[in-house]
Amino acid sequence: MRALKNRSHSDSNQFFTKLLAFAFLATLCIWVAQNAPALADKNAWEQHLDAGSQAYKKGQYSAALESFNEALKDAENYADSEKDRATTLNDIGLVYDAMAARAQAQKYYQDCLSLRKKVFGDQSEQLIAPLNNLAVSYVEDKEYDKAIATFQQANEIIAKVKGADDPLLSVNLNRLAAVYQTTKRYPQAVDALKQSLDIAKKKFGERSPGVAVIQNNLAVLYRRMGKAEDAEALYKDSLDIREKSLGEDSLEVASSLNSLARSYREQGKFEEAEPLLKRSLDIVRKAPDATPQQKAAALKNLALLYRELGTPEKSKPLYEEALKIQQDAYGENNDAIVDTLLAVGQMDQELSDYKGAQTVYNQALSICDKLGSRSDSLRLAILDRLEDTSRQSDDMAQAIAINDQQRKLIESASVVDNKLLAKKLNDMALLYKEQGKLETAEDFLKKAVDIQSKSNAESSESGVYLNNLARIYAERGKLEEAKTTYQRVIDIRTKLGVDPMELAAAMRHYASVLRDLHDTAEADKVDRNASKLEESNNE
């Protein structure tokens, strides 16, 4: 006690400071002891998340899921653990999407969204990425209405949080426009792309490369809407932007040249397309950073043009060069090589070299055998060409056998493509018709019409199959059935607004059946209407 009383003021301060220091160290030790597990969990989460990300990038999806699920267990009982759990949930969704397991992916994106809304609120920037991922997953799942609604929700948040002129909104509007285009909601797609274009021009300038990208997308849309002149103008302007901003020998310029050439080809301006595709190929050949895919595509585009010009012999060396590039880059067994072989076989058919075509198609099928079920869509395309080659060679038995093989493959899929199945049934009917087996042809056409109706009973395909069925009825003397079926064809084609000449042709056949039924007055009326359509088409 005496010693303490005799301490100086300075001594007392030193004692107090030491006491505070001791108290702080004691508290720190207690805090570290209490929070050591939490720190360990956070570190473990980061390690597992990094391991999962690395595995995902390498395409090792099972390993990625294992690491991400461990990370999910780690993200507990520390500050911001809910934020980390949300990040992990989003990443697991990405893995499932890469595995084409859409339902699981969507569940994880939705769980991520729920957690981020809880942590950040309903209008947070943190919701944008999982919303976009969810929307893309819906697109892959062909849940287009859900995708549109989800993109719209993301866009509303972007506009509110980042601003109506934010570049991310421009990007997302492009994504939304792509879904509108897929579902043939063309006016909405045009509006979205125009809004995206306005943002890009404001943020980056009227003649920026980003503007050229969006204009190209709008041009594609105009092409599909039949607005060839509008598309051509946009392609030309995009080409000019890229030449001036990126240089005349850039790969982006090569892409624009190809797009403009495609527009010309679709308008039948093949001669105007040729110099563009030659220049595009020249740029790609010289570009040190051109990928094997870009080189092969440029060669194949020019080869296709020569086939369209009726000079398939000029295509052969181009296809051979493309194949060599692909084989050197990917090996002998690759989807891209199968696609090129398919084009080579079609070229051989155009040269009437049916045996050569069959050899090429069989070579492509042998690659598909090695690739497995992931090449089924290519296998179907090859078998379709083999069927056609067999028909051209008058080997109907072989053509029928190949058609049977295709339909079995289509029907064995987890989700049956009814539209494609209906087409193959129609093809089979025509094969039997060529052999004069009209009763069998009729049976296959009835099946084609029935199955097509499951996809769309009033589609252009339905009109084709019904028209073929009506002709079979007429040839077999089933005039009442032919009459009723032609009426359906005319009704469908009228509603769809098809080429007037297609509608007029169906009306002429219908009139012929009416005359066979001795209904001359009605037949004359139908013929007059058909004549009006033909005359208006020739004006």
Offer a few descriptive terms.
539 residues; mainly alpha; globular; disordered N terminus
Quick summary of this structure?
The chain is mainly alpha-helical and 539 residues long. It has helices at residues 2-5, 9-57, 61-74, 81-98, 102-120, 128-140, 144-161, 167-182, 186-204, 209-224, 228-246, 251-266, 270-286, 292-308, 315-330, 335-350, 354-371, 376-392, 396-411, 418-434, 438-456, 460-475, 479-496, 500-516, 520-538. It has 25 helices and no strands.
Structural write-up:
- Residues 1-36 have low confidence and may be disordered.
- By secondary structure, this protein is mainly α.
- It has helices at residues 2-5, 9-57, 61-74, 81-98, 102-120, 128-140, 144-161, 167-182, 186-204, 209-224, 228-246, 251-266, 270-286, 292-308, 315-330, 335-350, 354-371, 376-392, 396-411, 418-434, 438-456, 460-475, 479-496, 500-516, 520-538.
- The protein is globular and about 90 Å long.
Mean pLDDT: 90
Order of helices and strands: HHHHHHHHHHHHHHHHHHHHHHHHH
Please estimate the helix content: over 70%
**Overall SS class:** mainly alpha
Amino- and carboxy-terminal Cα gap: 121 Å
Biggest β-sheet description: none
Beta-strand content estimate: under 5%
Query: Which blocks of ≥5 consecutive residues have pLDDT under 50?
Result: 1-36
The total beta strand count reads 0
